[in-house]
């Protein structure tokens, strides 16, 4: 390991680090624009110049690998002058329009000009102006501000895997853009706004909405997919202004999907902000005491076996626990948190992503079955691509052929190909055989088929046959697409005995009027027309299919409005935080259910969220390990049988609209229209 | 330079002719397997020659597809180098060097002669579509300055009169003499040799 001296301090660093990284290890701040730790090194902004002994010129520290005996100085007169010079050049063609720029207040160029720049301008000539580019409904461009750091180009190519951005022209005529006018076709495109060190790329939906210093920042967890990305919710007053990623190397690194980032305008539309009761066929606003007594009475007076409860994709663990306790308390076991009828639930290893997301960095073979990770978990897909780019990963896909941003071997459209692999007849089974850390990723859509249990069984056989399970590696993964699913299954929110009904059974029984009361906890992805004559209680935050059918509506809180626990697809217990208060008369979800039980014979035995969480730990001890991966045992799951040769259907039909929040979002509607080729509609409305 | 909108001159489709295809495949074999994208510049040149001196977008897309590289990477190359023309040009592309050595040796006269003779300004194409006039940076023939490049040929040691004569000959379909217009073979001194004027075979002279 080379030893180098930085500002008279000796430090031994790993071989292959750059001078800039070594300086950071010592806490020396090196200004930079083009360098980004998750992207390749470009070395074109020249802001990171430092002095190196025996070098007549300053060196670009981001691109210089450390060498034995190097002597680096970061605080000399030469470095100061070099930085001032670079900054002066960068500002030559940068408009000084900070007061009207959305990046103002959180701009790298602004900050570094203050810290390292010259205090006045000597430039009197004309500045250049660049035509703005169209990059789709999410990214707004003011290209005159671009300093050509090429971070966005490298992100699109390396992380997002959609090489659509480039630098055309040369010298003063160089421009960053797509050359041919088109929207970026990435589900991660919003991240280039975060990466842009200046105000050239800014968020289109957030344009001119707020200044960074007016916003209150709350660290929380995303629920738009089952990854549970770490996010920061920026609010002003009672309004969620924007959502940004937080760095979390175990989950989302520092990226989030466009849905995570931009569906938040759906939080302001179609909201349920007061209780409603259906009177004479129309939903009528009522007050809390009335609706609670009506629902409590119905629950008390109905036979437990004639009731059912379904939890939706965005439900938090606290409310699912409370609802489960409430329903089982009145003798109802017809519970299900699997709106899609996924054939998983008993063994924890069968329904989580056992390898962990960070584990993808060590995998050397991945078999994807019936899953489109690019849509079901864009951030996880970027992780697969990252591993793929190291050249040490072989990927096979069984399912619909799609552009996943990396190359893979297409093994077949239908589950029949699993049998070929099990028979060891296909080429890919050799790859799996030789791999040290093979993985199988089973889509949630694959187990939601009628033969889901058989597919699950075969996938387990695959994992066992190719020795994917060992002491330090578990290569069996189910990629969930709903944020509530793992938590719900961990809490046992599913039919608890053989005679109890699952979602399919509930809908079947209800459509032939065999059920009298159905409690929907944010369940909107079921066919509400099949609920028959049952009295439907809908608890949730958006007026979607569930609320339309409901006889009683209990307004709950959206994920930004409550302190709640979610379990991501890896089985990682995470806590979301309340960024704003619930809208109008809405309440935190578990407390609504607690209030209903208060009007019944046996009130639920908890009054605070701490007590609810204690009860969660009693039911399943995993809930005591926050933000950790708990070691779990391998088990036997799935059911042997014959596979249906029907091709795998994607679990998600439209990436941008998968839940009540994103369906209510105007931005997501625009993204959908753009993705469907209806570009013109958006361009026109933009002006 | 960035004509991101639809160019009215843009062709509908492009495909390598048989000859070009053979030449393109020969270029690709110069690079290791999997590195065929390295051949992008010669292939763009071949495409440009096939399209009468300019690169329509379909041709760039075709080359990108041919080399299995993202189209934007081809656009980057094509827009960076001035030798690729992104709009239709005349039959003769007259490129006048106006950099310092040529300017000192009288490129202003050459420029004036071109403009007068062709009746167009820099960046324009004559009305009959025969000539396009461009101002270019150094073409590396400073020893024989001033000079112009017309299509693949250099014309050197110019002045206003010789320039006009070359253009006139081209206009009537003649083939003007390429290279130096003052009779130099290469870049030897114009007034004859000033040194090494006599042959001194080693050993024949006085020691």
Task: Give an overview in words.
Chain A has 687 residues and is α/β, with parallel strands linked by helices. Chain A has 23 helices and 28 strands. In chain A, strand 21 and strand 22 form a beta hairpin. The radius of gyration of chain A is 27 Å and the shape is globular. With 207 residues, chain B is α/β, with parallel strands linked by helices. Chain B has two domains: 18-80, Arc Repressor Mutant, subunit A, CATH 1.10.10; 92-180, Glutaredoxin (3-Layer(aba) Sandwich). In chain B, 34% of the residues lie in helices and 10% in strands. Chain B contains seven helices and five strands. Mean pLDDT of chain B is 90; it is low at 1-8. The A-B interface holds A 131, 133, 157, 163-170, 173, 175, 177-181 and B 1-2, 4-5, 57, 70-73, 75-76, 79-81.
Return the CATH topology of the largest domain in chain B: Glutaredoxin
What would you give as the CATH superfamily of the largest domain in chain B? Glutaredoxin
**Structural class estimated from helices and strands of chain B:** alpha/beta
Q: Which percent range fits the helix content of chain A?
A: 25-40%
Question: Level of helix content of chain B?
Answer: 25-40%
How many β-strands of chain B, per DSSP?
A: 5
* CATH architecture classification of the largest domain in chain B: 3-Layer(aba) Sandwich
| Distance between the first and last residues' Cα of chain A | 57 Å
User: Which chains make the largest contact?
Assistant: A-B, 18 and 14 residues
Strand content of chain B: 5-15%
Low-confidence runs of at least 5 consecutive residues of chain A: 680-687
Q: How do the strands of the widest beta sheet of chain B line up side by side? A: 2-1-3-4-5
Please work out how many helical segments of chain B DSSP would assign: 7
Radius of gyration of chain B: 21 Å
């Amino acid at each position: 390991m080379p030893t180098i001296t930085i500002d008279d301090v000796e430090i031994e660093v790993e071989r292959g680090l750059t001078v800039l990284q070594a300086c950071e290890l010592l806490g020396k701040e090196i200004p930079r624009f083009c360098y980004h730790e998750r992207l390749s090194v470009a070395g074109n902004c020249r802001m990171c110049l430092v002095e190196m002994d025996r070098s007549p010129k300053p060196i670009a520290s981001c691109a210089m690998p450390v060498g034995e005996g190097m002597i680096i100085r970061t605080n000399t007169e030469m470095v100061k002058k070099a930085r001032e010079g670079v900054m002066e050049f960068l500002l030559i063609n940068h408009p000084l329009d900070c007061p009207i720029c959305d990046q103002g207040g959180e701009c790298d160029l602004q900050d570094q000009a203050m810290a390292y720049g010259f205090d006045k301008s000597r430039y009197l000539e004309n500045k250049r102006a660049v035509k703005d580019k169209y990059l789709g409904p999410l990214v707004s461009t003011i290209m005159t501000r671009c300093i050509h750091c090429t971070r966005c180009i490298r992100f699109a190519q390396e992380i997002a895997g959609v090489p659509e951005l480039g630098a055309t022209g040369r010298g003063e005529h160089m421009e960053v853009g797509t050359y041919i006018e088109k929207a970026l076709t990435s589900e991660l495109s919003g991240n280039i706004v975060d990466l842009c060190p200046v105000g050239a790329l800014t968020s289109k939906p957030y344009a001119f909405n707020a200044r960074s210093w007016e916003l209150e920042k709350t660290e929380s967890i995303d629920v738009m997919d089952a990854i549970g990305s770490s996010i920061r919710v920026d609010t002003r007053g009672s309004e969620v202004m924007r959502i940004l990623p937080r760095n979390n190397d175990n989950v989302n690194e520092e990226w989030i999907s466009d849905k995570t980032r931009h569906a938040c305008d759906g939080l302001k539309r179609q909201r349920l902000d007061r209780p409603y009761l259906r009177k004479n066929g129309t939903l009528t606003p009522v007050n809390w005491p009335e609706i609670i007594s009506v629902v409590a009475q119905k629950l008390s007076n109905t036979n437990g076996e004639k009731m059912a409860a379904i939890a939706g994709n965005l439900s938090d663990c606290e409310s699912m626990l409370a609802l489960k306790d409430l329903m089982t308390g009145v003798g109802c076991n017809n519970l299900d948190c699997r709106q899609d009828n996924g054939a998983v639930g008993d063994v924890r290893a069968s329904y989580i992503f056992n390898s962990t997301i960070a584990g993808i960095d060590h995998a050397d073979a991945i078999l994807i079955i019936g899953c489109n990770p690019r849509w079901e978990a864009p951030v996880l897909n970027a992780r697969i691509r990252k591993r793929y780019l190291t050249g040490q990963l072989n990927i096979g896909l069984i399912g619909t052929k799609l552009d996943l941003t990396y190359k893979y071997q297409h093994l077949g459209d239908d589950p029949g190909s699993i049998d070929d692999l099990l028979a060891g007849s296909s080429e890919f089974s050799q790859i799996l055989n030789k791999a040290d850390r093979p993985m199988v990723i089973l889509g949630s859509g694959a187990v939601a088929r009628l033969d889901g249990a058989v597919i699950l069984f075969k996938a387990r056989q695959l994992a066992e046959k190719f020795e994917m399970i060992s002491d330090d590696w578990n290569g069996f993964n189910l990629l969930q697409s709903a944020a509530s699913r793992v938590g719900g299954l961990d809490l046992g929110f599913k039919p608890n005995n053989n005679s109890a009904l699952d979602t399919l059974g509930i809908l079947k029984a209800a459509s032939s009027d065999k059920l009298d009361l159905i409690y929907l906890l944010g369940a909107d992805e079921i066919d509400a027309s099949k609920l028959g004559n049952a009295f439907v209680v809908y608890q949730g935050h958006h007026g979607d299919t569930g609320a339309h059918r409901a006889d009683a509506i209990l307004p709950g809180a959206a994920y930004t409005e409550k302190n709640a626990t979610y379990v991501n697809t890896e089985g990682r217990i995470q806590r979301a935080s309340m960024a704003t208060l619930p809208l109008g008369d809405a309440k935190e979800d578990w407390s609504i259910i607690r209030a209903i039980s208060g009007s019944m014979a046996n009130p639920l035995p908890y009054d605070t969220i701490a007590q609810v969480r204690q009860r969660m730990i009693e039911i399943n001890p995993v809930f005591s390990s926050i933000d950790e991966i708990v070691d779990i045992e391998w088990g036997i799951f799935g059911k042997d049988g014959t596979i249906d040769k029907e091709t795998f259907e994607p679990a998600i039909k439209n990436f941008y609209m998968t839940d009540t929040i994103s369906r209510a979002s105007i931005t997501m509607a625009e993204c959908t229209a753009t993705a469907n080729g209806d570009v013109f509609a958006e361009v026109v409305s933009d002006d | 330079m960035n004509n991101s909108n639809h160019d009215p001159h843009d062709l509908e489709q492009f495909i390598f002719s048989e000859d070009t295809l053979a030449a393109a495949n020969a270029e690709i074999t110069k690079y290791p397997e999997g590195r065929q994208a390295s051949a992008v510049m010669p292939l763009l040149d071949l495409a440009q020659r096939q399209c009468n001196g300019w690169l329509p977008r379909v041709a760039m897309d075709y080359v990108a597809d041919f080399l299995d590289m993202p189209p934007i990477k081809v656009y980057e190359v094509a827009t960076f180098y001035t030798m690729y023309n992104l709009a239709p040009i005349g039959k003769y592309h007259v490129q006048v060097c106006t950099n310092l050595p040529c300017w000192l040796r009288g490129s202003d006269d050459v420029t004036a002669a071109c403009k007068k003779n062709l009746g167009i300004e820099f960046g324009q194409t004559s009305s009959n579509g025969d000539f396009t006039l461009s101002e270019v940076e150094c073409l590396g023939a400073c020893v024989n300055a001033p000079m112009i490049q017309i299509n693949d040929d250099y014309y050197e040691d110019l002045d206003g009169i010789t320039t006009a004569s070359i253009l006139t000959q081209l206009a009537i379909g003649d083939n003007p003499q390429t290279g130096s217009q003052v009779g130099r073979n290469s870049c030897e001194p114009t007034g004859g040799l000033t040194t090494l004027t006599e042959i001194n075979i080693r050993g024949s002279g006085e020691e």
